[in-house]
Design goal:
The protein is an alpha+beta fold. Helices cover 18% and strands 25% of the residues. Strand 1 and strand 2 form a beta hairpin. The radius of gyration is 24 Å and the shape is rod-shaped. The N and C termini lie far apart (82 Å).
């Protein structure tokens, strides 16, 4: 059984996420995307380590907190730890030891070999980085950003309407004089 992240608060509240491979969390171009303006595009990474998991902040603006303390480097997570970034708060559920289960069933057959990874582009494919951690490339150019700037359409429309109304008022004023 793999470690599980259980989201208690935030946009993903109630969701459970198993961590069986490196998982980047952020607003964009991440393995786990969270729609939250307080989270950086690539906020943090959670990766399996020695039967458990660790989390590392990727230089986010608002930081990552484990049990109320802001972390500066890779931090090991234990069962019951609380992680907070942006509006999201999650609990860590540690993996149960597989040896305990195997010992309880004396004649259990050996587990099947894991399936080969899915081909790129197939429905079951996971998007894992091709390069080692820390060597990520910038997002592809031309992709529409869903960041804060793209959410400013309302104020832009109001400003345009004010300018248009002022222009119409000036035309009417000078037409009469």
């Amino acid at each position: 059984m793999t470690p599980v992240l259980v989201f208690d608060e935030g946009p993903l509240a109630g969701r459970r996420v198993e961590v069986d491979a490196e998982l980047v969390i952020g607003r964009e171009d991440a393995g786990l995307t969270i729609e939250d303006e307080q989270i950086s595009r690539r906020h943090a990474v959670i990766r399996p380590r020695d039967g458990g998991i660790e989390i590392e902040d990727l230089g986010s603006t608002n930081g990552t907190y484990v049990n109320g303390q802001r972390i500066a480097g890779a931090t090991r997570l234990a069962d019951g730890d609380t992680v907070k970034f942006g509006r999201s708060v999650l609990q860590v559920e540690a993996a149960r030891a597989a040896a305990t289960v195997a010992a309880a069933v004396p004649d259990a057959p050996a587990p099947a070999a894991p399936a080969p990874p899915a081909a790129a582009g197939s429905p079951g494919a996971r998007s894992a980085p091709a390069a080692a951690f820390g060597a990520y490339a910038a997002p592809a150019a031309g992709k529409r950003s869903r960041g804060i700037a793209s959410r400013q359409l309302g104020p832009q429309l109001v400003s345009f309407a004010v300018v248009a109304a002022t222009a119409v008022a000036l035309v009417l004023y000078f037409a009469e004089h």
